[in-house]
Amino acid sequence: MLAVLLVLACLVAVSIGPVDSSVPRALDALASAGPGRPQDGAAVAALALTACTPASGSEGSGSAGESGAEATTTSASEQPSRIVAVSSDVSDMALLLAGPERMAPVSESSRSPHMGMLPDLARQVEATIPAGVEPDVEQILSHSPDLVLTTARHAGERTAGDQLADAGVESLALSSDDFASPEAYADALLRVGEALGEEDEATKQADALLEGIREGDESTAQPSEGQQTDGRHAEAAQTAAAEAGLTGTAPLDAELLVRADPDIILLEDFMGAGDEPFDELLGAEAVQQVPAVASGEVHIVPMTEASAVAGIHLPDGYRTVAGIVSGASAGD
Length: 332
Description:
Blueprint: E1 4-7, E2 12-17, H1 24-32, E3 46-49, E4 72-73, E5 83-85, H2 88-98, E6 105-107, H3 119-122, E7 127-129, H4 137-142, E8 147-151, H5 155-166, E9 171-174, H6 182-196, H7 199-220, H8 232-244, E10 250-251, H9 254-260, E11 264-269, H10 279-283, H11 291-294, E12 298-302, H12 314-331
């Protein structure tokens, strides 16, 4: 039985749960603190931590603890041609489905190879919205949008959505739940596709995403000899989580990490920072005997593969995490 600790950038624990039968549930935890399920016979204790929002206002993965508003939209009589997408997650969706030609601006973060899902396409759009979760409504309106895409899990964008409605601008707001799992993301792609008049492309991309996840499920569905396939791993992971105190939102420090006692630690590579945000924590004397640290099983996972901004690259994150866990299982 392996315990895998999933750590995002700002060391604030949001949720913990087992990962059952497929690694995408571990990715769910990384992206939004969603529920999980045991994988490959290993009871995987999946601790999801929110990514940080630096003083400069760079947008992160968002706070998974926010409930978010329900997705809302108004219908347009024709395909929108001046789309404004406020944050990278919805910018990437619009780029994927409509291409750069119909984007008025994109989120500055979408241009980053460490955060954007399609940075090459994003760089083809001349105008940008500064990275952050407190958008300037006047700046948005200055682009004369005929559709604005926002993410209601960001508090500032919820406020912007209300102001846009008051200004009579059509908008679609996605909620936290739309990023809670690959399946939810696929459904959100369909809704965005409908708003953009790109239903066929949205269906194609959603189907491809879910097929990638299904292929990953099938590749890990057969347990190796001696591995358990019943609910005992889920129960064990939940019990271990409770004993470690990982049952709700809490800062992660050396004491909590020692109690969690993980065999593997996965670190989110937040905006290309690598393991630097975690140096102080992992360098603490108290954590040197934690199995994952002592055995060198501390791994960086790209933000573009395993976070709320991963999008269509979630199957890549699936394979990355599965490979790490399988390698550790083989050496166990």
